[in-house]
Write a structure and sequence with these properties.
alpha/beta; TIM Barrel; globular; 3-stranded antiparallel sheet
Amino acid sequence: MYRNEMGRQWAGPSVYLSTMYQLIRNILFLLPAETAHTFSMTLLRMACSLSLTRYWIKKFYSPTPKRIEMWGLPFQNRVGLAAGFDKNARYLRELETLGFGHVEIGTVTPLPQAGNPKPRLFRLPKDRALINRMGFNNDGAEVIAERLRVWRQKNPDTQLIVGGNIGKNKQTPNELAESDYRICFEKLYPYVDYFTVNVSSPNTPGLRSLQEPEALKRIFQTLLEANQQQPQQKPIWLKVAPDLEIEAMDQVIDLVLSMGLNGLVLSNTTLSRAGLKTDPDQVEKIGAGGLSGMPLKDRSVAWVQRAHERTNGKVPIIASGGIFKKEDAENLIRAGASLIQVWTGFIYEGPGIIKNLSS
């Protein structure tokens, strides 16, 4: 509790800010999910355009730095924003102001693509979950690389770690997928701090078949070769689906070890609808898409623990899925995660989640 100048107790700014966000969220939830996302980020950008407002936002929301160094990268805290939220690297200043230690942009593809028809993002409030079938909608590697270049130029002292989540265009056949990943790697290389290879989105037809060992080998041989040709090699991670069978997951983990990749992101969205509280008819009406949020909580811990044990802790893990409270983050870190990423939890809990998870 805090005391004001009259000696009276009050709950402190975090409680009032949390309550305020709940009210704002109730209003935003009246809008279609994708519209609410664009609207809220536009408002945040407007607020952060003023140095005084930006100062107060940072003061209230940004956590005290607890620096963690991995591969020579100084993460200011463990909490990052998962790919899919800032697909086109439009809100990096705003997200850094809120206190994220890292932001993963994308998924970025070589050519721009519109993604799947709208509506394609849906809320399941009873389950504290989302379903999305976005389909890698993004501005393309060249445009996003230029946007990052300008951002780096304007913010030379930024401490935000930026990851590049890369994928293939929908029309590119799987047998040529490695060329798409290489194009994205080379375009983004000067401007991102690490890469995450996305072969696990359920919303690009056939993409998840790239998680098979031979397909993964082709992609990573291409990327490792491209990385070795650069003046400084950058970390490369693999993001996998939570729907893999245990044997298939073990094969992926073994491949990561054998090829010397830098880490795993566990995990992407799930196709499962098991155990949801939302009315089944409503879920069926929403249709296809990847489920994220609280329903992935237990599965996230289990996959992180298995990967950590199978690699003997030699492969760093970014945990993503079902993170809403400090306890969720602590469970994943105990299971073996080095960093965590939020997305759905950020939507439901608001910007206060970063400080809560970092405390």
